[in-house]
User: Fold this.
Amino acid sequence: MTAYAVREIEKVVEEAEAVAAEASVESTNMANSPACAHHWIIEPANGPVSQGQCQNCLEVRDFKNFVDAYHQDDN
Ligand SMILES: [Zn+2]
Assistant:
């Protein structure tokens, strides 16, 4: 039973490392691209607006915590 648990953990770690490697490659490619396909990491909502930062180009932007934010164009 213990051996089985260890094997499962190793499998999870391998998968996590594979995902991290892929993300790293993507991020590098995005950083070199003139038009960033933003990957926003947005803070938890604690008011009408949350601040988010793009993990690719580090641009910072405010995001409204309302449904109608979906209708706003981000140009
Ligand atoms: Zn970006």
